[in-house]
């Protein structure tokens, strides 16, 4: 029975030991830094994929313009018009992709700032926890000396446990404050999806833009061929 009680007391002392709490707080903050690093890597990968799509779309637009010119040379204005219509539909989509890439770069910058802030806090905590551990060791030694001198070890042990619990509460509050700071500093998730439906007015304006672009390109190509 005494052995079980001794083991339980040792386990409780470990949970109440501020050194354990400090290490736990440091590990949690280090994990947050790691998660921000992963989020930043995912954001960069998504942007790179979008940039690859953008580059291929630009090449496709150039090809359609050349096909329209070739069709006009052969007297096939109908084929030229179809090619130019496809070109301008892609041009509208290209504008959206360019805007999304700009937004993703801004999100990446926010994640980088959050990562630097977290790393700074991690460095500060690393130094602070070692300082507090040293102070705890000194305080613990002083308590043990006073217990031996005073002869009232049981009472002093109770005081030591109260001090230890108070230090634990302080450490928990510091860890909670650091976690709240991290949540405030971290950006939100990236959404790379386009809406499935757009406003009717926006669709009509887009159609008019495409038609105007087609007519303008037809006029330009005809002038080039006439020249």
Structure summary:
Helices cover 90% and strands 0% of the residues. It has helices at 2-16, 18-73, 77-150, 153-185, 200-226. Helix 3 (77-150) packs antiparallel against helix 4 and helix 3 packs across helix 5 (200-226).
Show the helix and strand layout:
Elements: H1 2-16, H2 18-73, H3 77-150, H4 153-185, H5 200-226
Helix pairs in contact: 2-3, 2-4, 2-5, 3-4, 3-5
Q: Can you describe what's shown?
A:
Helix content is 90%, strand content 0%. It is mostly helical. It has one domain. It is rod-shaped, with a radius of gyration of 34 Å. Residues 187-196 have low confidence and may be disordered.
Mean pLDDT: 79
Total individual domains? 1
What are the low-pLDDT stretches, counting only 5+ consecutive residues below 50?
187-196
Class based on secondary structure composition and strand pairing = mainly alpha
Approximately what portion of the residues adopt beta-strand conformation? under 5%
* Approximate shape: rod-shaped
Order of helices and strands: HHHHH
Distance between the termini: 106 Å
Radius of gyration: 34 Å
> Got a strand count?
0
Number of helices: 5
Percent helix: over 70%
**Sheet having the most strands:** none
Which properties best describe this structure?
5 helices, 227 residues, single chain, mainly alpha
